[in-house]
Amino acid sequence: MKKLISGIVLLIFISIIAASCSKTETYADKLKSQSKAISRLMNDSGFYTTSSYPTDRPFDEGEFFSESNHGVFFHVIDSGNGNRAEQGTEVTVRIRGTYRLLSDAITDSTAWDNTRPGFENEYMNFTYGNTSTYKYSSSAYGVYNYMFTSTGLTVPLSYVGENAIIKMIVPFGVGSAYQSNYYDPVYFGYIKYEFSKKQGEVEIPEAEQKAINDLIADSGIIVLNEYPSDGVFAENEFYYHKRSGVYFNVVDEGYGRQIDINDRQKVQVTHSNTTRPMFDATAIFSNEADPDDIISFYYGQASTYTEKDASNGYSNYTFKSKGMTIPLGFVRNGAIVKMIVPSISGSTVQKLNEEFVYFGKIQYSFDEE
Fold first, then answer.
1. pLDDT tens digits, residue range 110-169?
2. Could you list the residue range(s) of the whole structural domain that residue 47 is in?
3. What residue spans of the chain are helical by DSSP H?
4. Which of 165, 196, 227 is the last residue of a domain?
């Protein structure tokens, strides 16, 4: 009898385990979900595929070339100026009408758009022929690079040239770091390929750049072009983040986890020993003693990085900026940094005045969930 009961218990246990395992989504399940999402987009949008690239005619409305080597689909709107990418060509990509097919609402056509005013520095870029530049492991290299730059994105350059404009579907297998992590195919309603001789650094107004250079020289700051591999900074070392023009020194890298850009998590910022050298070199600003003046934004949601007016507090209007978010790609909760933020990545006030801001202390905090 005991053996019978034990056998029944064992069978129940095995059944529970089997049922549990059957609920775990396999890679094959993820591929199936992707296939369904792409088919749904095709059907809903009136798209269809062809296995032969149209070489002697424009693409028909809704026609997508199915490129078999990588599994991408693309429709050419404008094939460009005839100048083709070569080994070493630096390519900048502009996108809009972009949807993560398993994550975004198709009705939200502005969710991912780096052609909008104010988003010019949300670079997506790679060096053609250098596969190590086709995927960016974290948002420290730029939000759009992490989310969308991929091997798949480079495929149409075998067919089109400089300034080409296309629509495209990129499966997660040849997708970005984000796509690989979350198994999410992406549809691009607009992609434009721009070529340059080198990866562009931001252009800072001449007078402002001179004032920044003077501050660096007068303060004995040593500029680092590479982020320290061990994350440790000497007191006078500032890392230069060329895509934003920001310089920063990590005083304390923080504790706990690093924030995930996909969580759109609220971040609060306090600052002190803050100066506006081009505006009033004697004034020192701080919000540490004023809880009503705390800076806040949602990391990864660029529309929250600046304020149009002072209705949400002086610091949010005068100091909150995209530049302030850059160190979050490197540090953790509670981190403390010193920063130089130029107007190109600065607050609304900074852009109006073409002035940089020096933060003697910035501290980040967000909920550990």
1. 678 999 887 877 879 998 888 989 999 888 888 899 999 999 999 999 999 999 999 999
2. 27-196
3. 2-22, 27-45, 143-148, 151-154, 177-182, 206-219, 314-318, 322-325, 348-353
4. 196
Burial (CB count <10 Å: 0-12, 13-18, 19+), residue 110: exposed
Q: Identify the CA nearest to 186 among candidates 163, 170, 209.
A: 170
Q: Can you name the residues that pair with 187 across neighbouring β-strands?
A: 99, 169
Rounded to whole angstroms, the Cα distance separating 142 from 146 reads: 6
Q: 202 vs 54, 156, 239, 348, CA distance in Å? A: 38, 27, 15, 17
Distance CA 338, CA 88 (A): 35
CA dist., res. 77 & res. 116, Å (int) = 20
Quote the CA–CA distance of 85 and 104 in Å, as a whole number. Answer: 32
Question: CB within 8 A of 196, min separation 6: which ones?
Answer: 90, 91, 92
Q: What is the DSSP letter of 215?
A: H
In the chain, beta strands by DSSP E: 48-50, 63-67, 72-78, 90-100, 125-127, 165-170, 186-196, 222-224, 237-241, 246-252, 266-276, 280-285, 295-298, 336-341, 357-365
Q: Which of 303, 311, 339 is nearest to 324 (CA)?
A: 339
> At 337, which CATH number?
3.10.50.40
What is the rounded (10 degree) CA torsion for 141, 144, 150, 152? -170
Q: Note whether 161 and 235 are same-domain residues.
A: no
Laid out side by side, the sheet with 63-67 consists of 48-50, 63-67, 72-78, 165-170, 186-196, 90-100, 125-127
Q: Does 8 score more than 70 pLDDT?
A: no
- Tens-place pLDDT, residues 291-313: 999 999 998 888 899 999 999 99
